């Protein structure tokens, strides 16, 4: 068997086309556009590239896009003041502080300072709590992107065994909740899981977010499983996922490649969340 690819750019384009349609009608109704503010501290090359892509994509879709590129030495007090100003800025509907933050800044204090209704990354504890209870919230972008990919291939999760490898707050835990809300039976694995390979072999849907290059091999995959590889690892001059693509694609029915899989979905979901925030503010839901 050779798996079909779930191509991130293809799924993202379909969603962006719908965003463009929505934007045209919202602009007509409100004479305003959604605004996204991103704060980037320092010069980390990967963070700079992510922020650049967020700016480019939001501008291309006609959003009001503001990027605050500030020195790495910026104090926490000044950063919190900047967030407060953005919380009170009528033209801004989404605020994102690019992670990771330098050591002198307390990440939780920063994430908690973002107004819940502008927290388009979905990291504020109130959004996280609402996600747990299945209430309206901003869904973190990468897990949201994974779900959109499953939706794109028309996959019905009800009653399926979903296994997630990785339990981070930004990927593993939220994606587990989203799968649970779709009535999958969910297992979350981590670095202490006994016999990870055996657990993975039970998965109808396997989502891997570990940060270890090509750790999950084809032999761990149930024939016909759907595999979503969230990992992005640089090996020499190549980017690879957490799944060993060549062996996994011989077992899976669908698989996301790296690059060209989940990556392009994350930014699209950020834009979608910002649009959602704008609609809520203008009672256009
Ligand atoms: P974290 O480092 O926060 O979490 C990694 C998780 O993997 C932890 O729960 C850890 O377990 C678990 N883990 C580590 N080693 C093993 C192992 N040997 N066996 C089983 N579990 C293990 O990573 P993130 O969730 O932030 O990111 C994961 C990957 O996804 C990275 O490659 C990252 O670059 C990528 N990523 C991609 C995004 C995209 O847009 N496509 C967005 C976000 C992340 P424990 O909790 O026990 O330590």
Explain the overall architecture.
The protein contains ten helices and eleven strands. The protein has helices spanning 8-30, 45-60, 76-87, 107-113, 125-133, 141-152, 172-181, 196-200, 245-248, 263-281, and strands spanning 4-5, 35-41, 64-70, 94-97, 161-165, 185-189, 205-208, 226-229, 233-235, 238-240, 254-255. It has a six-stranded parallel sheet. The protein has a three-stranded parallel sheet with strand order 3-2-4, sandwiched between helices. The chain has a two-stranded antiparallel sheet with strand order 9-10. The mean pLDDT is 97. Strand 5 (161-165), helix 7 (172-181) and strand 6 (185-189) form a beta-alpha-beta unit. It has two domains: 30-115, Leucine Dehydrogenase, chain A, domain 1 (Rossmann fold, 3-Layer(aba) Sandwich); 141-263, 3-Layer(aba) Sandwich (Rossmann fold). It has 285 residues and is of the alpha/beta class. The longest helix is centred in the N-terminal third of the chain and has 23 residues, at 8-30. The structure holds NADPH dihydro-nicotinamide-adenine-dinucleotide phosphate (NDP). NADPH dihydro-nicotinamide-adenine-dinucleotide phosphate binds next to helix 10.
Q: What's the CATH class label of the largest domain?
A: Alpha Beta
CATH fold-level name of the largest domain: Rossmann fold
Shape: globular
What is the succession of H and E elements?
EHEHEHEHHHEHEHEEEEHEH
Radius of gyration: 19 Å
Give the SSE map.
Layout: E1 4-5, H1 8-30, E2 35-41, H2 45-60, E3 64-70, H3 76-87, E4 94-97, H4 107-113, H5 125-133, H6 141-152, E5 161-165, H7 172-181, E6 185-189, H8 196-200, E7 205-208, E8 226-229, E9 233-235, E10 238-240, H9 245-248, E11 254-255, H10 263-281
Parallel strand pairs: 1-11, 2-3, 2-4, 5-6, 5-7, 7-8, 8-11
Antiparallel strand pairs: 9-10
Helix pairs in contact: 1-10, 2-10, 6-7, 6-10
NADPH dihydro-nicotinamide-adenine-dinucleotide phosphate is lined by residues 142, 165-168, 170-172, 189-193, 196, 209-212, 230-233, 262-263, 266.
């Amino acid at each position: 068997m050779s798996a079909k690819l779930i191509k991130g750019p293809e799924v993202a384009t379909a969603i962006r086309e719908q965003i463009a349609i929505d934007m045209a009608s919202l602009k007509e109704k409100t004479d305003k556009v959604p605004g996204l503010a991103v704060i980037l501290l320092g010069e980390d090359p990967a963070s700079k590239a992510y922020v650049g892509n967020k700016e480019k994509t939001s501008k291309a879709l006609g959003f009001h896009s503001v990027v605050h590129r500030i020195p790495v030495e910026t104090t926490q007090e000044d950063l919190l003041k900047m967030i407060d100003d953005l919380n009170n800025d009528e033209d801004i509907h989404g605020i994102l502080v690019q992670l990771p933050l330098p050591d002198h800044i307390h990440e939780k204090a920063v994430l908690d300072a973002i107004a819940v209704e502008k927290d388009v990354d979905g990291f504020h504890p109130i959004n996280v709590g609402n996600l747990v209870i299945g209430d309206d919230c901003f869904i973190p972008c990468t897990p949201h992107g994974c779900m959109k990919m499953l939706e794109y291939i028309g996959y019905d999760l009800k009653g399926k065994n979903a296994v997630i490898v990785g339990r981070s707050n930004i990927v593993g835990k939220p994606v587990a909740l989203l799968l649970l809300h779709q009535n999958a039976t969910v297992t979350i694995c981590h670095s202490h899981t006994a016999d990870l390979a055996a657990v993975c072999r039970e998965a109808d849907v396997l989502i891997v977010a570990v940060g270890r290059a090509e750790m999950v091999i084809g032999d761990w995959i149930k024939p016909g499983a759907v595999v979503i590889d969230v990992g992005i690892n640089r090996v020499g001059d190549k980017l690879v996922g957490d799944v060993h693509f060549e062996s996994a694609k011989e077992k899976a029915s669908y698989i996301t490649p790296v690059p060209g899989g989940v990556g392009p979905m994350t930014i699209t979901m950020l834009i979608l969340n910002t649009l959602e925030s704008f609609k809520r503010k203008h009672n256009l839901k």
